[in-house]
Design a protein that fits this description.
By secondary structure, the chain is of the alpha/beta class. The chain contains eight helices and eight strands, in the order E-H-E-H-E-H-E-H-E-E-H-E-H-E-H-H. The structure holds D-xylitol-5-phosphate and zinc ion.
Length: about 220
């Protein structure tokens, strides 16, 4: 399968959001990765519904929403109405994860689960066949621009095994500290989607950076 690149809008220029959204529209990127932080589940607040509404108005690609919030069930329908195509909740924030996943799907979205760096892959054994995506956090969620945690490679391998063993079709997404230095190794380990925030938007030519990443990770396909 073609490997996907999802620029994280958290690292975009919030004073010129439309410009950066158009840039992603025109680029070889596949998805928009949208980080929603509530200041409770993570020690940071990003942006909320009105901003997502404006992003959706201009975004012409899949909108991949990563909820770093407690009690995500309260907002599932709202995010569907705001244009989210994929809704990812944190394993650590969901007491009744199966119910949450069913509700995301019932609202017409693809369902994802994100795992913090300390959360083992094994906790997904009994739900993997219900998941469209697993987001393996390669930094502690809450901030862009952090360094990549090396243990991620091992987790990708374990997740890949679980997906194959269960005959699931779940995509593996990696989020945090992705650069051209680790992209190939992540793909070789089994990743399908790479989120990249700072590496894209803090670069001189974000358009070229996206193109290079996309070409690099699809080199052997
Ligand atoms: C971290 C967010 C990430 C972040 C990635 O909490 O979930 O999506 O924006 O940013 P970089 O690529 O800068 O680590
Ligand atoms: Zn994210």
């Amino acid at each position: 399968m073609e490997k996907l690149i999802a620029p994280s809008i958290l690292a975009a220029d919030f004073a010129n959001l439309q410009k950066d959204i158009e840039l992603v529209n025109k680029s070889e990127a596949d998805w928009f990765h949208i980080d929603i932080m509530d200041g409770v589940f993570v020690p940071n607040i990003s942006f909320g519904m009105p901003v997502l509404k404006s992003i959706s108005k201009h975004a012409k690609k899949t909108i991949d929403v990563h909820l770093m919030i407690v009690e995500p069930d309260r907002y599932i329908k709202t995010f569907a109405d705001l244009g989210a195509n994929i809704l990812t909740v944190h394993y650590e924030a969901c007491t009744h994860l199966h119910r949450t996943i069913q509700s995301i799907k019932a609202n017409g979205m693809k369902a994802g689960v994100a795992l913090n760096p300390h959360t083992p892959i094994a906790v997904l054994e009994d739900i993997i066949t219900d998941l469209d995506l697993v987001c393996v956090m390669s930094v502690n969620p809450g901030f862009g621009g952090q360094s990549f945690i090396e243990n991620t490679y091992k987790k990708i391998g374990q997740l890949k095994n679980l997906i194959e063993f269960s005959k699931a079709t779940t995509l593996i997404e990696i989020d945090g500290g992705v650069t051209d230095k680790n992209a190939n190794k992540l793909i070789d380990a089994g990743a399908d989607v790479l989120v990249a925030g700072s590496f894209v938007f803090k670069s001189k030519e974000p358009m070229e950076t996206i193109q290079n990443l996309k070409t690099m990770v699809n080199r052997t396909i």
